[in-house]
């Protein structure tokens, strides 16, 4: 999945939980800050992460949840989690 593909899928998930939309619908970029630019609180970010898990069929490791500040961070989570080999218990 390309970076652009991931962004296209993430955009509606982020918009669903944002408190402030950019003036231009396509203005979400990897550098868009979740809290400062979109006015998302921590609970909204958690909901986006849950939606990402459901949409992409992923389980995001807890250690990846810290340090999510931008749309690019969300994109990295999708790309690296979907590419990671499954762990055998």
Describe this structure in words.
Helix 1 (3-16) packs across helix 2 (42-56) and helix 1 packs across helix 3 (71-83). The longest helix has 15 residues, at 42-56. The N and C termini lie far apart (27 Å). The chain has a single domain, classed as Non-ribosomal Peptide Synthetase Peptidyl Carrier Protein, Chain A (Orthogonal Bundle), CATH 1.10.1200.10. It contains 3 helices and no strands. With 89 residues, it is mainly α.
Short description:
By secondary structure, the protein is an all-alpha fold.
CATH topology (level 3) name: Non-ribosomal Peptide Synthetase Peptidyl Carrier Protein, Chain A
User: Which percent band covers the strand fraction?
Assistant: under 5%
Judged by helices, strands and strand pairing, the structural class is mainly alpha
Note the main sheet: none
Q: Supply the number of helical segments.
A: 3
- The termini sit apart by 27 Å
How many distinct beta strands?
0
Name the shape in a single word: globular
Q: So, the CATH homologous superfamily?
A: ACP-like
Named CATH architecture = Orthogonal Bundle
Global mean pLDDT: 84
List the helices and strands and how they pair.
Blueprint: H1 3-16, H2 42-56, H3 71-83
Helix pairs in contact: 1-2, 1-3
Question: Can you tag this structure with a few keywords?
Answer:
single chain; 89 residues; Non-ribosomal Peptide Synthetase Peptidyl Carrier Protein, Chain A; 3 helices; globular
């Amino acid at each position: 999945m390309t970076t652009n593909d991931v962004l296209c899928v993430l955009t509606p998930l982020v918009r669903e939980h944002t408190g402030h939309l950019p003036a231009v619908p396509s203005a979400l970029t990897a550098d868009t800050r979740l809290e400062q630019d979109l006015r998302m609180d921590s609970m909204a970010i958690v909901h986006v992460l849950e939606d990402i898990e459901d949409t992409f069929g992923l389980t995001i490791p807890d250690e990846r949840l810290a340090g999510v500040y931008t749309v690019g961070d969300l994109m990295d989570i999708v790309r690296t989690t979907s590419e990671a080999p499954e762990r055998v218990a």
